[in-house]
């Protein structure tokens, strides 16, 4: 029981430490959800491939798909399974109808911990002209046994559309 309380306190402190990064961001423009199949963490680093879907607010823009990598540098111990990260996307300056892409690199702080079910948070700033902030919309949820505290880097690229062929 004490372990669970200590874990909850650690995560609450980590989430509080991550939230000031979004203070300089502007308008909330959408939600980014990234999924991965997991990784074996290598003590001071980890890297995992992510598939992300950006859902902008409003009906003017369609959802966008991105592929990328999520790297963590710092203390990173354990093995993670399937993981889901959700962020609110904030833009430093945004004009309605303005085309935008989230492709680019994002940097920030990362806190993760878990046993069987893991939770964590990552607050990131970056993208084109460092114009976006990714604020954790909810805690990261995943599988595995891990503990990580450090710096995170998320690199996103627009996913190439894939033609779908239907056969009767």
Q: How helical, in percent, are the residues? A: 10-25%
Distance between the termini: 57 Å
Please give the largest β-sheet. Answer: 7 strands, antiparallel
Q: Give the SSE order as H and E letters.
A: HEEEEEEE
* Average pLDDT, all residues: 77
Contiguous helical run count:
1
Q: Please report the total strand number as a whole number.
A: 7
| Form type | globular
Using only CA atoms, what is the Rg? 17 Å
* pLDDT < 50 stretches: 1-23
Sheet-strand content, in percent, reads over 45%
Multimeric state of these chains? single chain
- Tell me the structural class: mainly beta
SSE inventory with pairings:
Blueprint (H helix, E strand, L loop, with lengths): L1 H17 L8 E10 L2 E2 L2 E14 L7 E28 L12 E23 L5 E5 L3 E19 L10
Antiparallel strand pairs: 1-3, 1-4, 2-4, 3-4, 4-6, 4-7, 5-6, 5-7
How would you describe what is shown here?
- The protein is mainly β and 168 residues long.
- 10% of the residues lie in helices and 60% in strands.
- It contains one helix and seven strands, in the order H-E-E-E-E-E-E-E.
- It has one helix spanning 2-18, and strands at residues 27-36, 39-40, 43-56, 64-91, 104-126, 132-136, 140-158.
- Strands 1, 2, 3, 4, 5, 6 and 7 form a seven-stranded antiparallel β-sheet that branches.
- Strand 3 and strand 4 form a beta hairpin.
- It is globular, with a radius of gyration of 17 Å.
